[in-house]
Amino acid sequence: MKRFKPVMVLMLMTVTxxxxxxxxxxxxxxxxxxxxxxxxxxxxxxxxxxxxxERLEKTDEQLxxxxxxxxxxxxxxxxxxxxxxxxxxxxxxxxxxRA
Length: 99
Hints:
With about 100 residues, this protein is mainly α. The chain has helices at about 5-15, 20-30, 35, 60-70, 85-99. α1 packs across α2 (about 20-30) and α2 (about 20-30) packs across α5 (about 85-99). Mean pLDDT is about 85; it is low at about 5-20.
């Protein structure tokens, strides 16, 4: 599993808050990285590259809805990921674009 450099972790902690960076990153690595790539560069064709900002023009509410209900080939995560965990995931995804 790829790890961020200490400077990146510090930046994520500053931008999003310590718990958010850790929980969002853990959730992303566990549930999303297989398709969206560990660093946000998608490995599955047709999947958004979060490191390039693809789909990040959407509001947090729209992204949360996509995660909960699925979108195109992405399955719904409602019942698996919920509430604060999804919000933390969205914060982490947005931070990948700033990295």
